[in-house]
Amino acid sequence: MDYTAIAFFLLAAGAVATAILTITRRNPVSAAMFLVVHFVCLSGLYLTLQAQLLAALQVIVYAGAIMVLVLFVIMLLNMGDEEKLAERVNQRRILPMALGLAFALQLAIVFLSEPSPQFAKMAENAGEIGTVESIGQTMFTTYLFPFEAVSLLLLAAIIGAIILAKRRLVTN
Amino acid sequence: MMTSIPLEYYLTLSGVLFTIGAVGVLTRRNAIIIFMCIELMLNAVNLTLVGFSAYLGDVTGQIFVFFVMTVAAAEASIGLAIVLALFRNKETIYVDEVNLMKL
Lengths: 172, 103
What we know:
The structure holds 2 protein chains of 2 kinds. Chain A is mainly alpha-helical. Chain A has a single domain, classed as Four Helix Bundle (Hemerythrin (Met), subunit A), CATH 1.20.120. Chain A has 7 helices and no strands. Chain B is mainly α. Chain B has a domain of 62 residues: Helix Hairpins. In chain B, 76% of the residues lie in helices and 0% in strands. Chain B contains 3 helices and no strands. Chain B starts with 6 loop residues before the first helix and ends in a 13-residue tail after the last helix. The chains are: A mainly alpha, B mainly alpha. At the A-B interface, helix 1, helix 2, helix 3, helix 4 and helix 5 of A face helix 1, helix 2 and helix 3 of B.
């Protein structure tokens, strides 16, 4: 077993464990902290797939920007621990668990079936396509229009967030 | 450098993470934690896209991940603004106590 496989299994175990901890912690701050660790694990998994730029972006954008925003709102609202649902707890727990189990079963069936030989190993050029040069080349030629459209989306998000979160001024 | 892990491992991991995220969305009451579970699901899909990109040798999957990250950032700002507005009006962010649109 080579180092990539060992790294994959360690990071996969870490990612699953922190994901489970994220959805089970009662305290929102510790849930957010486990989610940050989860994002770092995913960034490592991107590195095992030779996607260097995305691994860096994962840490900067998700673990850096988005989680800081989430933590800021959690601490601003200062909600404390989430108490359990009193009466509907069974109904609300069993249905999602059943859905999750069904999905896990489907996955098991897919995973135990005959794997395609095409996907047994990485493509020859996997190391080159993850670089900034390769991604930038494609993004600013083939995907130039979606790139510009996404900047409009971000502008709309900024304006929307300001309008939603500002206090209404009383004019009269 | 070649790796010995087949793509199915990555797809299974991604499916497991997506399931965990979906269960989280359905079981939690705190809107911010539900929001974090949505991020979990988005990241599970990103892992699938990067995996296919690496194994097919096509850069398009990674471009898609870039766009998904952008949409997630936009969603984060809007979602948290909604949570703030909700808390200001209703003094709660537990989704089962917010039933304005329920008949």
